[in-house]
Design goal:
The protein is 54% helix and 13% strand. The chain is an alpha/beta fold. The strands form four sheets. It has a five-stranded parallel beta sheet, with helices on both faces. The chain is globular, with a radius of gyration of 28 Å.
């Protein structure tokens, strides 16, 4: 999708309140990917993406911006926490697994697209196979070859086909063969995930396929058979080639909690969790080739977005080489009371709309008075100032507390319409707000 920066910001505005600087930065970065694709080959190879470092407290929208951005562009996307990885040679995940996970995400995306392209043909094949199971072919014999017998079989098959299309046979039980391939991960668990790529491929080729006959309903059989038929129609090698190219040219990696791996070198032993992780991340961010089970993946043109709160450290505590690979710095601001009001009202999937939809499942209609939104926003803002600032996440705890009683009693409420007022909000929260120590635990 070739969106302009203004269009990208407008789409992000539908879900994320404020943080215009961050939205503009990511919008420009994504547009530059499109601009790079328009360049001649001799110029394009020298243009690399400008990675972004987002700085701001928790709950202000860093992760949401990156996640929504990937959804808008249709790019392969993965979010990882820097704290999950350790220096090579120690217990923990190897940083190369970031690219392998990103490729797995891309393969899943490409397979879905290719499956959609063969959907019509696959469905026709599935219908024929279902009819074969519902009406098995009779054993060969003189009577089978007779015209009358063939005609009767054809008529019966046509009736079954019509019933199948009308959905009259969805609950009927049939037996179908199912083949399952054992993977190294399934066999060796977490150790299989960290196995050498060549060894993993070799082990999986040696593992036998498990074939069994299952008795399932026609509805379930349709899904199983569709996957089998689609697998025959799509080219696996083409999926892998396309997925690798998509990762290399438009992949986005969001590295959260980057501030947790920066700081001065350890003086009490091996520096496993801080600069060691930065040193291992550096080649991937700078541009290197990562070996995967589907082939080598170059990371030169992948866009990296790092984020951290930097409460007890600062960006300058990162290694100089690492800092240099994130030339665009964006500071996200704390949320104000007005921001909380907008978060509760404006986004397409705002928390108030979510809560109304949930209770609507029980037939209860929820209305929010104007002053109730204002009251919840004010309480969230005050609590963030008095205790730990957790940003918009504070609204989750407040809404849950406000709706606790209604959610519990919703199926049995005599009144099917509930109006939330400021007075109701204060009544639900007054005991917790009054006790400073209790509020630290509850809210």
């Amino acid at each position: 999708m070739d969106l302009t920066p203004k269009q990208i910001v407008a789409e992000l505005d539908k879900y994320i309140v404020g943080q215009n600087d961050a939205k503009r930065a990511v919008a420009i970065a994504v547009r530059n990917r499109w601009r790079r694709r328009q360049l001649p080959d001799d110029v394009r190879k020298d243009v690399s993406p400008k990675n972004i470092l987002m700085i701001g407290p928790t709950g202000v929208g860093k992760t949401e911006i990156a996640r929504r951005l990937a959804g808008l562009t249709g790019a392969p996307f993965i979010k990882v926490e820097a704290t999950k990885y350790t220096e090579v040679g120690y217990h923990g995940r190897d940083v190369d697994s970031i690219i392998r996970d990103l490729l797995d995400s891309s393969i899943s995306m490409v397979r879905g697209e290719m499956t959609d392209s063969v959907k019509e043909v696959a469905n026709e094949q599935v219908e024929e196979r279902l009819l074969d199971h519902l009406l098995p072919q009779p054993d060969a014999g003189p009577s089978v070859d007779e015209p009358e017998s063939k005609s009767r079989l054809t008529r019966t098959r046509s009736k079954l086909r019509q019933q199948l299309r009308n959905g009259n046979l969805e609950d009927r039980q049939i037996e179908i063969p199912v083949e399952e391939k054992t993977t190294a991960v399934a066999m060796f668990g977490q150790a299989g995930m960290e196995m050498d790529v060549d060894l993993q491929n070799m082990v999986e080729k040696m593992l036998p396929s498990r074939r069994e006959t299952r008795r399932v309903t026609v509805a379930d059989a349709r899904k199983i058979l569709f996957n089998q038929e689609a697998e025959k129609l799509i080219d696996r090698d083409k999926i892998h080639r396309t997925a690798i190219e998509r990762v290399e040219q438009s992949g986005i990696v969001f590295i959260d909690e980057i501030d947790k791996v920066c700081g001065p070198p350890s003086i009490h032993g091996p520096d496993v969790s801080r600069q060691g992780v930065q040193r291992d991340l550096l080649p991937i961010v700078e541009g290197s080739t990562v070996m995967t089970r589907y082939g080598p993946v170059k990371t030169d043109y992948i866009l990296f977005i790092a984020a951290g709160a930097f409460h007890s450290s600062k960006p300058s505590d990162l290694m100089p080489e690492f800092q240099g690979r994130f030339p665009i710095r964006v500071e996200l601001t704390d949320l104000t009371k007005d921001d909380f009001v907008r978060i509760l009202r404006e986004p397409h999937n705002s928390l108030t709309k979510q809560q109304s939809a949930l209770l609507g499942s029980d037939g209860v209609q929820v209305d929010f008075a104007e002053d109730s939104i204002d009251a919840m926003a004010q309480i969230a803002y005050d609590l963030n100032r008095r205790s730990q600032n957790i940003g918009a996440r504070r609204l989750y705890t407040i809404l849950e507390r406000v709706f606790e009683s209604i959610s519990y009693e919703a199926p049995d409420l005599p009144e099917r319409q509930v109006t939330i007022t400021a007075q109701y909000v204060h009544d639900r929260l007054k005991d917790v707000l009054k006790d400073e120590d209790l509020s630290k635990f509850i809210l």
